[in-house]
Structures are given as C-alpha cells and as structure tokens.
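User
Here is a favour to ask of a fellow structure person. I am asking you to supply a protein in sequence and structure-token form. Please set it down just below, with no commentary around it:

Assistant
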Amino acid sequence: MKKIFISYRRDDEPFATKILYDKLAAYFGSDEIFYDIGDIPKGAHFLELIEQSISQCGAAIAIIGSKWLTLTGDDGQPRLSNPNDMVRFELEAALRRKIPILPILINDAKMPHPDAVPQSLREICFLQDHHVHSNDQFDREVSEVIQFLIEKLRQPANLTDVIMPDRGTGVLTGALGLLAGTQLNGIDMVNASDGWIVGSQGTILRLTARDGWVKIEPLVHTSLTKVRALSTSSAWIVGEAGVILRYDERGWARVTSGTSHHLLSLYMFNEQDGWAVGAEGTILRCQNRVWTDFPSPFKKALHCITMLSPQHGWAAGAEGVILEYDGIAWKQITQLDLDVIEDMVMLNESSGWVVGHKSSYEPDEPDQSEDKSAVPPRTFIRRLAKAARDAYAAVSNFAGDLSPIGEIFAYNAGTWERENIPRCSALIAIKMVVPDEGWAVGGNVLGGVILRRQNGNWVELYNPAHGHLGAVLHDVAVVSDVKSWAVGGSGMILQYDWNTWKLHTSLHIDSGQAETSTS
C-alpha cells in the first residue's frame, strides 16, 4: 500500500522529478511511493487503480514546472481542459478525498492563477507551495518536502495494517513514527539476519530472518545503552542505573552488576568474560559471568571501551581522556582536544579511531582585573553584553547553529591526529572494517548525520535522518561492505543496502513475557 502519491507530467521537468523521487525513495522506501505508470500492474483498470491508490495515500505532491499549465494535447487545447487528462484526474481525486497536497514549483515555475485552471482544480492554487531548485539548495529544499510528508504520515491513520499470525506475535506496518518517543541507543549484529537493538524505556528489538525486527516485551523500564551480540543464542546489554542483562537459550535475565551508576558501553570476549564502563569513571570486569568493580584512575564518564585481548584495551570519555589497560591496571595515557569521546575502535596495536565532539561556542574568559567591590558603568555594560551573548548562544545551540562540532581522530603508530572531515554536528558512533572502509554517525536536534570513509577520505552521505527533528543517530553496525544498520532518536532505524540508506518501517510485536530471573 503506497503512502505518497507523486503527480507530474512527463513532458514537464522529468529530470528534476526523477531526482526528487530518488531522494524520497531513499528516505521512505520506494515501496511507499506511487510514482509512475510502472506502479500499475498489466491488465489493471488504469483509472480505478489510480483512484484506489490515491484513496490509500497519506499525502500527495504535485510537481509543477514551467510547462505544467501550457502543455497541449493532440487537439491543440491545454491538457488540463480535458476532463480525462491524467494529471487533472489525479489531483481531482486527491482533492475529493481531502488528501494533503503539497504543490512543488520547480525552478522558476509559478503557481497558476485560479482563473487559469478548471473549476475542480482551483483549490490547488490556494495551497501553500514549495520551491525546489536544481542548484546547491536542492538538498535543503528536498529536506523540507520530507518534513511536510513526515508530518502528514505521522497521523495514526497511516498505521495501515496489522497481521497476527498467532496470539503472541504480530506485525504493524506504516510510515515513520512506529517507535515515536523511543530513543534507540545501540545495535549489534551476529550476521545479516540476526541482531539486537536497545533503547529507552527498556526497549529491546530482535532481528530474525523470518520476522524482521521484533519488539520484545520489556524486562526493565530504564534506558538501555549498548548491546553486544556474541552468537544467535548469546548477548549482553548494559543500561542506566547499573542494569546488566544476559541472553542465552532461556531468554533474557537480569544479572547483578554491583553498581547503580549508568553504564554506557561494554566489550565481551565470550559468554563469560568482558568489561563495562560508565558514569563517574565506572569500570566493571566480568569473569565467569560475575561482575565486579575494577579500580579506575578517572572519575568522570567513560563512554566507550574496546579490547584487543584480555590483556590489552582502551576506554575513553569525558574531556577527551583515553585510558589504556596493560593486563594489570587502567592508566590515563592521553587527552585529546575534545569535550567528549563518544566511541572508539582499534583495529590493531597501531591503528585506531575515535569520534566525539567539541563545543563551537567558547564563552569569554572573566576579566580578572576588575574591581569586584564596585561595578562602574563600562563594566556593567560589558557584563550585560556578555549575558546577551551567552543567552544567544544557548538559544542558537538548541537550534543547531552553535551545536557541538563532530570530530574524528585517527591513531597511527603511537600518534593521535585530527582527521579532515566535512563540518558536521556531534559524532557518536564509529565502526571500521579496514583502515579505508567505515562509518561514523551522529547528529543534533535538527537531524542525523552519516559519514563514510572510502579511499582515505571521509564524505557525508544524504540519509533518511537528514532534516528529521530529533533523529540523532546513536549507533551503527556493519554487516558487510554493502549492508549496515544505524539507529537513533525518534525510533529511527536505517538500513544500508547496496549504496542506499533507507528508512526501515516494518516492526513485529512480541507480546510474550521475557525472562525476569536474576543471577
């Protein structure tokens, strides 16, 4: 069932229309868009299927180019004057059914005057239009089209189908917003058809070859931050308030962590041994499935941990600090010019990467020479101006203008060096396959960002999280060079499949009870 209907004339801006379609298909998926005659099966009644397709859509866009109004038929008359004109038929059907319509004016096209179109289409001329230009503004303008469609497709009516194979499971399909209000924090894959996602409010999703992503009944209701999948029958999860969950053939169970601090990352060697790190410098060690506190030289948040062997690993976090484990103790070895290191990956002893962010706003240093006993007029004005700048910075930071800037540092033979990357918002996760192939993701309140490293360079890719409010991407999992997953805010699940990131919009619901034992 298509969610978006594109009405256009093949003889009027076909190239721009095709590019626009490609962008929308990359975001919503091609299966969600009725675009062309190719969507009509052979032998089907053309007009009936058009009518039916429009009735099931949640939104429509009308592509209007410079020739939209003036193109003529074989009789020499304007096509719109013919009641059987296909574009006229499509728009009349959408108006009759009160489907939201966005007129999109391509390049220098103008909205037709109401007197220039048939009476049945005059309402189109009074709708707020949107311009899309074939220049460097194209991506920004398309993101605004996507925002319009997101708002319309978020309505409950756009949850279009539910299938219940049995009493305990079901599948709900529809547009963006199936996990609205849920922040997805972590993802890990066993293989291309088996993996886990965790998020806020105890959210756990399982990928299966048969059912796709399945939402599991919550075991806890605190935020879960990271998951590590060891095999199809073994996985670990950490979360806020010291939560640690273990998965085996019996299901999920909560285990004793010995801490109430938020846990932010973990690394597991096998089913029984590993490490976890978190707030206030927390370091936990797991041996034979028993978690115990381990001495930490750092008292602020540790956001990530990676190990090459049981005797050698690294952890990093607040203030750009990096710790190293030598088989005996954790020690601070360096501090990078970052506010926070969010994630880290080490390919070997001499090659690694970190991602994080640094504030783009630096408040003025206080004037130490001021006489604190009195406030002369010039000092008062200076302080008032500083307060105004600080207030502006706070507002702009929320809007994204002065949000933290994403950074990547590479480790090569003992030296950490800042990478040359496109200017972007905060980076939160990184996965590298080889030194010249990997992904970094992040974002801010205005949407997500995806960077890809190829041939020694980092490039930003257009992605479905771009321009979607709150869709910060928190983690990425690489299955192969042609298949990856990313997760983030607003319940965002993205799938990379053969050079295209797409929004994943199908979710199964498992109403069975999870295991609740504690060990």
The first helix runs from residue 14 to 28. The chain is about 15% helix and 40% strand. The helical segments are 14-28, 46-56, 86-96, 138-153, 377-399. The mean pLDDT is 82.
